[in-house]
């Protein structure tokens, strides 16, 4: 089982990366990124509700141990033995992914405030390159695509 901070940061990162094109298109209030991080983190922790649920503990535990938990920010995949064996790498990788996602979202929001939408050409390519940067950082920290865990 991956640490809770890993689940939280991966969920927050995914939600921020999904919202990055929205930040490029619309001027967002300053409180929106804070809520995106909070909601994304809770989304990533969702299958762990069986630890604190007063009812349906066995059903929630069964959901946690099924592949359906991957709908919550790859929760099931992060709880696999291969990831569990790399405790420090999973924590460090999730931190790098989170900082990359925050950087991408911040750059998108700044790009939106500094330019008008009509003046920026190929804005979707800018969004794609910003969204791919944290993924490339994660791959670099893990040692490549097919490194043995």
Which features characterize this protein?
single chain, 7 helices, mainly alpha
Report the helical percentage.
55-70%
Biggest pleated sheet: none
How many beta-strand runs? 0
Number of helices: 7
Compact overview of the structure:
By secondary structure, the chain is an all-alpha fold. It has seven helices and no strands.
Structure report:
With 149 residues, this protein is mainly alpha-helical. The chain has helices at residues 4-25, 32-45, 57-64, 75-78, 81-85, 87-114, 123-142. Helix 1 runs antiparallel to helix 2 (32-45) and helix 6 (87-114) runs antiparallel to helix 7 (123-142). The longest helix is centred in the last third of the chain and has 28 residues, at 87-114. The radius of gyration is 17 Å and the shape is globular. The two termini are 15 Å apart. The relative contact order is 0.18.
């Amino acid at each position: 089982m991956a640490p809770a901070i890993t689940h939280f940061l991966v969920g927050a990162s995914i939600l921020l990366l999904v919202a990055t094109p929205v930040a490029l298109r619309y001027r967002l209030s300053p409180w929106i990124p804070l809520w995106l991080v909070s909601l994304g983190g809770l989304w990533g922790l969702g299958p762990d509700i069986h630890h604190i649920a007063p009812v349906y503990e066995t059903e929630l535990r069964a959901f946690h141990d099924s592949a359906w938990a991957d709908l919550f920010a790859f929760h099931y995949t992060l709880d696999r033995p291969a990831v569990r064996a790399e405790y420090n790498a999973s924590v460090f990788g999730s931190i790098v992914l989170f900082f990359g996602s925050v950087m991408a979202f911040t750059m998108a929001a700044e790009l939106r405030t500094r330019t008008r939408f009509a003046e920026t050409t190929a804005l979707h390519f800018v969004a794609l390159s910003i969204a791919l940067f944290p993924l490339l950082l994660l791959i670099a920290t893990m040692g490549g695509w097919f490194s043995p865990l």
